[in-house]
Amino acid sequence: MAASIFLTAIGLGMYSSTNSMFVKPICDSLGFARGEFTLYRTIITLVGAFFMPFYGKLIQKMGVKKVMLVCALMLGIVTMGYSFSTKLWHFYLLAAINGIFLNGVSFMSVGVLVSAWFDGKRGIASGLAYSGSGIGGAVMIPVISQVIERTSWRFAYQLMGIIGILILLPIVFFGVKDKPSNLGLEPYPADSKMGGLNKSTKTELSFAEAFRTKSFWLLIVAFFSVNLFAAGTNTHSAPYLSDLGYSTAYVSSVIALFMLFLTIGKVILGFIYDNWGIFAGNTIISIFCIGFPIFALLSPISPVFPWIYAVFIGMASCATSVPVSILLLRHFGQKDFPTIFSFTSMICSFGSSISVPAMGTIYDITGNYWLAWIIFLVLSFMISICLLFVELPKESKSKRNYAIYKNEDLYPLK
């Protein structure tokens, strides 16, 4: 578990969450438009999504540890490579290589470890493992911002690459074991008395059957929209606040708070879904989704509002991870869950790839991010509607051929 937390802290928290700190200094230094430069994030996302099925087979064949070792080394080298870039195509080329090796130290590979080691309490285990991304971001964002301010963005990239290699390689080599059986152990057992993810669902649909349901597409629209704003704000929050005149130290502190709530928010959401039910969890997500663009628009008025924005966007961005498996399992079951989850993740990746350059282009055309916040506000209302209607039993059991709302064993409505 400790190894998984470090993996997500470096692989996602440092390498991905610090991206926003580089946008303005690089664009100012090399004369790039923000929409052009942030396109490299789109390239990383799309290439990563394309190689996702390949990694599933590669991990089965080679084992997750060997894959992680190669990817950890390559990501460190690629990150240092950014420091030598002087043209846009340099960033684009390195981004493509980055995308190839990204899945090796991402949620997918960590998820393989968690599923191998935990038969029971997978929800809690996944939440803790994934929380490393927020911890890494909260720690590294202020560090990297100070490095950029005191030295240069080129040295910051070099430092990140060295840190990644020096930390990840030993952790993966000594701390990661593919299966508990390799050590003569058994996976953490499931408690037959526990509900939630530890119990099987009465709803068991194949991918083809799930694909034809309204619930599937309501969830696809909701999660696609969540990834739209999560990726865009992750990259553009820092330059937005900087453009408002806030200092680098202030901005980095606000973004660190964003990362902190991205961490603890996963635990909070998991607790809410476990103890208060699906409707309560979906309602909390809706409140934070609607709230963050409002406080973003209010941020020029008072320095208090960016702090509130950080809390709301941190909590709202947790919807990219915690509810996905919970709601997909609830509505479609374990029968074809890997296929359904992979398809959902791939669609969500397209949302992430679109929003980053789109938000940069909005700034390049209008000179501000006002239109982007309005779009996100509209999307947030749409997310809320989808999460509401997916839980409303509007169709009869005979019509849908399965009874989602009679399933009291797996995350019951309360």
Descriptive notes:
- The chain contains 19 helices and no strands.
- It has helices at residues 2-14, 20-30, 34-37, 39-62, 64-82, 88-102, 107-117, 122-130, 132-150, 153-175, 207-211, 214-243, 248-276, 278-298, 304-317, 322-332, 337-366, 370-389, 397-400.
- With 414 residues, it is mainly α.
- Helix 14 (278-298) packs antiparallel against helix 15.
Question: Given the helix and strand composition, which structural class is it?
Answer: mainly alpha
- Mean pLDDT across every amino acid position: 81
The span between the termini is 31 Å
Helix content: over 70%
Supply database-style keywords.
single chain; disordered C terminus; 19 helices; mainly alpha
Brief write-up:
By secondary structure, this protein is an all-alpha fold. It has 19 helices and no strands. Helix 4 packs antiparallel against helix 17 and helix 9 packs antiparallel against helix 10.
Topology at a glance:
Elements: H1 2-14, H2 20-30, H3 34-37, H4 39-62, H5 64-82, H6 88-102, H7 107-117, H8 122-130, H9 132-150, H10 153-175, H11 207-211, H12 214-243, H13 248-276, H14 278-298, H15 304-317, H16 322-332, H17 337-366, H18 370-389, H19 397-400
Helix pairs in contact: 1-7, 1-9, 1-10, 2-12, 4-5, 4-6, 4-17, 5-6, 5-10, 7-8, 8-13, 9-10, 9-13, 12-13, 12-15, 12-16, 12-17, 12-18, 13-14, 13-15, 14-15, 14-18
